[in-house]
Amino acid sequence: MSTSLSGSKTVFICGSALRGQPDHSNLQSAHFVREAKTAPKYRLHAVGNGWHRGIYGVEAGGISIPGELYEMTAEQYDYLAGNEPPNMYPHEVELEDGGSAIAFFYPQALIEEHGWPDISEYGGWAAYKAAS
After folding, report:
1. How many whole angstroms separate alpha carbon 22 and alpha carbon 68?
2. What is the sign, positive or negative, of the torsion defined by CA atoms of 130, 106, 82, 66?
3. Is 110 exposed, middle or buried (0-12, 13-18, 19+ CB in 10 A)?
């Protein structure tokens, strides 16, 4: 997991806190590092009737999820984590370039239990929201 000596954390954002999305303010003044994609090891779902996104890792059939990397102080990270929807949890995500960051995952079992739609084919949360 990417944590620097100064206590900042590199966080991968791929949902409603992306630039131009309604919850971007939850990042406060976190430093935008760059756009990034995950390694093709994840699935993307619209959770809670499309209220937010849910990702989880898979052994096969995954996609690269587009997103953004941010450097966050401990305070910014705690604020973001405190404003994530219920059941989301921090987990290391592998990036396309071989690096890693912290992302917020959603339990695959809950997604399957509720039958929330797999939106991986849209190519990302922002693209899904623009199409829906």
Report:
1. 15
2. negative
3. middle
- Please report, for the chain, how many H helices and E strands are present, in that order: 3, 7
Amino acid, single-letter form, for residue 53? R
**pTM confidence score:** 0.91
124 burial level (CB within 10 Å; 0-12, 13-18, 19+): buried
pLDDT tens for residues 17-62? Answer: 899 888 899 999 999 999 999 999 999 999 987 888 999 999 999 9
Q: What does the block give as tokens for 38?
A: 């995950």
The answer as to CATH 2.60.120.330 being correct for domain 9-131 is no
Q: 124, 14 in Cβ contact below 8 A? A: yes
Task: Identify the H or E element spanning 130.
Answer: helix 125-131
- In the chain the beta strands, taken as DSSP E runs, fall at 9-13, 31-37, 42-47, 52-57, 66-72, 89-94, 100-105
Residues 10-24: tens digit of each pLDDT: 999 999 889 988 889
SS3 state of residue 121: helix
